[in-house]
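[Meeting: bench + compute handoff]

Bench side (C.D.) handed over the final construct sequence. Compute side (W.E.) agreed to return the predicted structure before the next meeting so the bench team could plan truncations. Sequence as handed over:
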Amino acid sequence: MTLDALNLMPVLPEIILLTLACAILLIDVFMREGQRDVTYGLTQLALVVTSVAVLSGMGMDQRLSFEGSVINDGLSDVMKLFILLITAMAFALSRDYMKERGIQKGEYYLLGLFGVLGMMVMVSSYSLLLIYLGLELMSLAMYAMVAVHRDDIRASEAAMKYFVLGALASGLLLYGMSMLYGVTGSLDIPAIRQAVMAGTASDTALLFAAVFIVAGLVFKVGAAPFHMWLPDVYDGAPTGVTLYLSAAPKIAALAIILRLLGDAMIGMLPDWQTLLIVFAVASLFVGNVVAIAQTSFKRMLAYSTISHVGFILLGVLAGTKAGFASALFYTITYALMTVGGFGLIAYLASKGLEADKLDDLKGLNDRSPWMAFILLILMFSMAGIPFTLGFWAKLAVLQAVVEIDMVWLAVYAVVMSVIGAFYYLRALKMAYFDKPIVKGLQPRSWDARMVLNVNGLAILALGLYPTSLIALCATVFNAG
């Protein structure tokens, strides 16, 4: 490997984050039990410093390093920035919640940092080997995070289920990757794309590889019918951990979906497109219909995640730059809305009250009109009410699907969205028109209040003026 191939500049943010995470690990060893706010502050500082490193490299031409295994392009830069931003928001919103339950441990923040490192590796991977290494680094950190509350039986059960089914998904993905390597003779994305486009590889073996890779990917993102782990894990994990699990990892997952399907296997578009149609249709149905029956706010948001994953898959299956851009736009929108939704649960919770039931929202407008307004913004956006951020995200995906002459799929998605609007509006009905059964809100730290308020207002502002975010996502793919 030449010195030029070992250029470390494209991976400078990852090196900085790894160095800071190791430093925080050493510092945390000497911290007393009641000093975890110091670890929290250092963790947020590490995320800010890494974000500055990412920003300093933005706008440069596409760069490859480590013999083409690492890519630094517009897609990786944008995704890294939002992963870091969403993670910082999740840590801020979860701090009070974790502290009240005695689980604000250094491991929570450190595992979160190593999980972010895995996400950043996934986003910059241009090799099957590096994609898998990044995925496992992220996954192993998240398995442990779910079990951070060891005395909680539900959390331990969720962690075990997450680990077993996550390992199964990793096995499927790895088997598909091994078949892809076997028929193309390379681990690098460009070489695989060239072999697939040239038709030199066995069609049957490639088809089997595509099936296993797609199955592994949709398993990881929680698409139906491989969704069985998602509601149980999101509901069983402490809300502070669910905040972390539900948002940023979806951005990283989209990255490897786009690298594998939208780049390496773009020559097999008709094959994996058919598979994604099945998963998207199933996800939209299961996510929206089953969510109606939920009495838990956390489980309702978990099932709504499945329906959002269905919309993301619609953008990917379009197989066009517009489709990929719409999938990125939708994923960023989803992450902002979801961290707000679970963040609101953590904000409303107090010692002895999880605030994770829909009944806990009753009379929220009487207790805190401002928090009820934040809930209204989030629910309207998730439902896709016109002129909200969620509406523009859904519209972008539907336009991409219509452009490839799959009008029936767009109509189906609209019908499912209308059905899904019911459970979002039901939450608002409880907040605004039902009498409260819970007393006033627990005082919260300034950073949690600020993050929740800024997040809600940002979603409102981006809904009214979405062009900047849409243009950013489009530029990423047009430049590529």
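W.E. noted at the follow-up: The chain has a mean pLDDT of 91. C.D. will use this when planning the next construct.
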